[in-house]
């Protein structure tokens, strides 16, 4: 990343400021639900999943075997919202 910053002629403070802003947006109230909704819509678009497909029907893009992977959503950040 250091080499990329040298070539891009970007100050480290500007990168740090951007990353801090991004973290604050991620930790904001309601951000987790919004991100989940956006990513699920994006995945459905990419895989062309049918909203009305019965649970466990699977998709041919995912193997068509009717097996769906699942994982628990991690807990909210213990830091709380960044002001």
How would you briefly describe this protein structure?
The protein has 83 residues and is mainly α. 48% of the residues lie in helices and 0% in strands.
Shape: extended
Secondary structure: number of strands: 0
Please bin the fraction of helical residues.
Answer: 40-55%
Rg from Cα: 19 Å
Architecture overview:
It is a single chain. This protein has a domain at 8-50. It is 48% helix and 0% strand. The chain is built from three helices and no strands. The protein has helices at residues 2-8, 12-27, 31-47. It is extended and about 45 Å long.
Strands, helices and their partners?
Layout: H1 2-8, H2 12-27, H3 31-47
Give the tags.
83 residues, mainly alpha, single chain, 3 helices
